[in-house]
Amino acid sequence: MEKRCVLPTWALIMVIFSFVILPSLPAGAYTILTPPTGEKLLVRARRGNASLVILAVDNAERRSLKVGRVINRQGTVEPLPPAGSWQKDGSYYVHYGLSLRRGINTFVINPGDKKVIVLYRPRVTMLRSASNESGVYLFHRKEVVPA
Question: pTM of whole model > 0.70?
Answer without folding.
Answer: no
